[in-house]
UniProtKB/TrEMBL annotation:
Gene3D superfamilies: 3.40.50.2300
Designated name of the protein: ABC transporter permease
Keywords, alphabetical: Amino-acid transport, Signal, Transport
Annotated family: Belongs to the leucine-binding protein family.
Taxonomic placement: Bacteria, Pseudomonadati, Pseudomonadota, Alphaproteobacteria, Rhodobacterales
Signal peptide: 1-20
Domain Leucine-binding protein residue range list: 22-362
GO biological process per UniProt: amino acid transport
Record has Transferase as a keyword: no
Amino acid sequence: MNRFLATAATAALLAGAAQADITIAHVYGKTGPFEAYAKQSHVGLMMGLEYATGGTMEVNGEKIVVIEKDTQLDPAKGRALLAEAYGDDEVDLAVGPVSSGVALAMLPVAEEYEKLLIVEPAVADSITGENFNRYIFRTSRNSSQDAVANAKALGGENVHIATLAQDYAFGRDGVAAFRDALDGTGAAIAHEEYVPTDTTDFTAAAERIFNAMKDLDGDKKLFIIWAGGGNPMSKINAMDPGRFGIEIATGGNILAALAAYKELPGMEGATYYYYEIPQNPVNDWLVEEHFKRYDSPPDFFTAGGMASGMAVVEALKQAGSADTEELITAMEGMSFDSPKGTMTFRAEDHQAMQPMYHFKIRVEDDVAWGIPELVREIGIDDMDIPIRN
């Protein structure tokens, strides 16, 4: 009997210890067209947790445990996996996903289980807009932040802009936000073109854009909003839009995609992150450690993943526990460090307010991609980001 009681007590202690862990589910598209984005996001998340905990991977005396779930970019699968994480795995909170379409499917699950979902790196405005609920926080930038920053970089009197975007939430939200952001800049949208996410032949779309733009007077730009493969910029550039006086423009992207920017020296736009731009101790650590560990610079979504990890740790510290209601109270209006400097969760919609960067592409022979050289930082106070919920 004594042995049984001792064994039972040991089991209870072990169970209590297991329950004391802070468990985070990273629910993201590890496989599929956004695999590169996902890998960066996970590396960044783990480095953010490491940095913010001083390498201990503990906060408030409790160990942080991260479990991974692969949505395969399927909204139904993402929804089911998040429910599994909250219900069966009993995680304290979740981070992810990569795709805006998957994120929109996951939002109601967070509300149903009354658990936090920190959205990173999905971008669509509607995530913290019309589909928002109080259990959603987002460290990634939203479409409006992209749009306002690019409008400031590209707008001007007598500027005519056509847009090309993917026909789903990321693309349509991005164009809608960009259209609104151009108001008052002197520029206007002359034509909108939407194509399937897996498009590889842009001939027909480009011809429609050229026909809509060729007879306009003034500066003419084609602004491309794109995620994943297909390489529309290079393919349309090969069709010589310059013969109609049209310049290609776009926002920032991962290093692999920046290879296509090398064809367009002098191209301007606005970006979320490029590893040489932010000057702060967090980014210094990220760049140095990433080179040490991976023999390459941190990329676009590595920085975002790190921001999400740092936000998690700061929230847990301020709340003093992993209780959802205490976390929400701590996070509304909370400021936290990131590779981009200080970010702040806006209390009204839980969107992380953050700087963006106006760039101009510089080309160097020994660099495999076009380098987004900083023109100016577009600060939080320089961007009027609408609250859409």
